[in-house]
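::Amino acid chain::
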Amino acid sequence: MKKLHGLLLFLFTLTVAQAQTATDRKTILGILDRQTTDWNAGNTEAFMNGYWKSDSLTFVGKVGVTYGYDATLSNYKRRYPDRASMGTLKFTIIKLDFPARDVAYVIGKFHLTRPQIGDAEGHFTLLWRKIKGQWVIVSDHSS
């Protein structure tokens, strides 16, 4: 009987953990979809809602490391000053894992369709944390 209770407890725990991961996966993919929609509408500020509003946010790109939400937003606005430079964004998610509780890791590709100035594409790695019940990107490495 103890073995049966142990097995049932294990299966229950496993089911709850998988349900949580499925919910979190759906939430993160939803945020990425919303970011795509916001970007394609030309709304950089709304696109940034997926990021952690903190001075501890890190963004690693071609020019090095940027620290902080405001500096990251500033860089986006400087690099993509108009709709032509922003183009139309498409994300392709390659991998989404949960290496620890309240931590997610995403690897993907981005493609910007920009007929007037030429397309741009690359890969990204996003480190997510669930902070105060909300999933946010705490580190972005895009190249």
Notes: The chain has a mean pLDDT of 90. Residues 53 and 69 are 5 Å apart (CA to CA).
